[in-house]
Amino acid sequence: MAVYTQVTAEEINEFITQYDVGEVVSFKGIAEGSENSNYFLQTTEASFILTLFEARVNPDDLPFYMGLMDHLNHKNIVCATPVRDREGSNLKTLCGRPAALITFLNGMAVNRPKPEHCRQLGGELARMHMAAADFDMSRENDLSVSGWEKLVADCEAEADRCAPGLRNVLNEELAFLKANWPVDLPKGIIHADLFPDNVFFLDGKLSGLIDYYFACNDFFAYDIAVCMNSWCFEADGSFNITKSTQLLKGYNEVRPLGQQELQALPLLCRGAALRFLLTRLYDWLNRVEGALVQVKDPTEYLTKLRFHQEVRNATAYGLDM
Amino acid sequence: MAVYTQVTAEEINEFITQYDVGEVVSFKGIAEGSENSNYFLQTTEASFILTLFEARVNPDDLPFYMGLMDHLNHKNIVCATPVRDREGSNLKTLCGRPAALITFLNGMAVNRPKPEHCRQLGGELARMHMAAADFDMSRENDLSVSGWEKLVADCEAEADRCAPGLRNVLNEELAFLKANWPVDLPKGIIHADLFPDNVFFLDGKLSGLIDYYFACNDFFAYDIAVCMNSWCFEADGSFNITKSTQLLKGYNEVRPLGQQELQALPLLCRGAALRFLLTRLYDWLNRVEGALVQVKDPTEYLTKLRFHQEVRNATAYGLDM
Predict the structure, then answer these.
(1) Average pLDDT for chain B
(2) What is the DSSP-derived secondary structure letter of residue A169?
(3) Does B26 lie at the interface with A, CB-CB under 8 angstroms?
(4) How close is the nearest chain B Cα to the Cα of A243, in Å?
(5) In chain A, what's the furthest Cα-to-Cα distance?
(6) Cβ-proximal residues to B204 (8 Å cutoff; 6+ apart), any chain
(7) Which of A141, A291, B188, B192 has the most Cβ atoms closer than 10 angstroms to its Cβ?
């Protein structure tokens, strides 16, 4: 939680003249988001989020993210959408950073999702997958198998500092996933980071998805696996099969899952667990004392990985097909 | 800039039922304020700031702050005001912290105030002083002479780590101020921390004052001295007499300054400079690696103190009376 780049009143007043959105009424830095700087901006006409993209985001990927949000919004998937300036551009520069003015999405993230939240999540995820089918840009998932390979190489020497025996776990899991990773599952645009923080609810109803800045082309079912990891485990590390059943049901009602996808779920869940274990481990090993962002616990995802390693087939996730 | 206490969607939804303000539409932590946790809260009816008071605020002082904001608001001084719950209370508890729901004030702090901003500031400061005259609570200024004495005692041994010779400067200045501090200037409620961050402007007009959490009873002219230090120096340390002239003019138009007050200004400015030098020095010496809040530079106020030490009379501040 942080604002990395400070934008002054003078700078935002000047910036906003490029858009047809009225005049600034209020402007406050938001203590959310661990990658970018976000501001809440209220104008005489509406509310917005101003995002300044910081060093970890590849500027070359920004047109893909902006285009995707725009596309989904036109397809009635409720998500924050970049606003175009008077010249039609939805990506600008402010304080030396790429910057986007994004529509404000009502709702709040839930801290402890209930099964009903998981069901709605599943449905919206499937709708999003289908709505993106005719989006004409693509972005490779740089945090799939070859990305994990790089992260293991970067982290393995120091991994046991985080958890004894972790180096072996990482190497064995990577070898297993490389040998068994599917090649022919249904693919398309996925969100790839749909944690509870990135899903808003209002009055108990899902009100929108945010933070598309890991979106890419990959297996649809891998997106489900990311959600299974982030929505269906309890704080004590136990897996909640009621929640995963609802997640899968919600999804399956909108976009029926094929047998191959279901069979691949345990493997995909292992891959998703390894992905977040590795990025958290990288951040943990490279943490800077005094940094604004709190480093997340890598071992949470080690526990999740171990759970999926024991799963023999998708019935462990509760969908009885 | 930080949110120290995390409030979940479930907790804020529950909390808000105690008020007659509609239902929660949006809730986001704000990266502002170095003492308390602040959230932006939008309901179906209006926008608010939710403040959770953290360890540095004395809970016994909160009824004074809440009462003062309430009083000033009724006197048409635009400031954020605590909202009362259904039982009439404007001070509650949330997540184990004292908490207040405060009305949302439009406008933005200016980063580089211009003379015109200073003039408006002066006028509003004088109006605030007069509006608080019949407020029936009081709070001693614990950051006046006896407070400085404690801070010098706490900091002097290590002070030279911050700036060579600082220990001597502190002791000599404290001795001088103790011997010369005025006793009979006009007194009343003062803001005592009216930095540019705490004054909002909208369309170039002053739209309100925030952050009354240092307010106390002291000399009115001391409040001007605090503003003189925080509004009238340039980033390079030079004093801008045009700004101070406008500040004093704006004030004097609303509440004419007496000869005694004007004569005391150089001394009061030294006191105000020492006060912020000491609290910044204390924070600097006691800074924790990894803390969320960036420690402000104490030597900025050493430079300001030195300027005021050379001032022989109030004409150096530009008001020719």
Answers:
(1) 94
(2) H
(3) yes
(4) 18
(5) 59
(6) B116
(7) B192
Q: What is the pLDDT of residue B1?
A: 46
Domains parsed from chain A with CATH numbers: 9-104 (3.30.200.20), 109-317 (3.90.1200.10)
Q: Are A61 and A79 in contact (CB under 8 A)?
A: no
Question: B12 — contact with chain A (CB < 8 Å)?
Answer: yes
ipTM of the complex: 0.84
Does residue B174 sit at the A interface (CB-CB below 8 Å)? no
pLDDT per position as a tens digit, B120-134: 999 999 999 999 999
Judged by CB atoms closer than 8 Å, whether chains meet at A1 and B29 is answered as yes
Q: What is the pLDDT, as a whole number, of residue A291?
A: 57
Q: What is the band of A1 on the pLDDT scale with cuts at 50, 70, 90?
A: very low
* Nearest CB to A108 within list B27, B106, B109: B27
Closest CA in chain B for residue A202: B25
Half-sphere exposure of B133 (CA within 13 A, CB side): 8
> Would an 8 Å CB–CB cutoff place A109 in contact with chain B?
yes
The reported pTM is: 0.88
Q: Which residues pair with B10 in a beta bridge?
A: none
pLDDT in tens, A187-223: 999 999 999 999 999 999 999 999 999 999 999 999 9
Q: How far is CA A276 from CA A187, A298, B280, B290, in A?
A: 21, 8, 40, 24
Nearest to A220 by CA among A102, A129, A290: A129
Closest-CA distance of chain B to residue A213, Å = 20
Position A308, amino acid = H
Q: What is the pLDDT of residue B143?
A: 96
Please give, rounded to a whole number of angstroms, the shortest distance from the CA of A16 to a CA of chain B: 14
pLDDT given at position B31: 84
**What angle do helix axes B145-159 and B259-285 make, rounded to 10 degrees?**
40
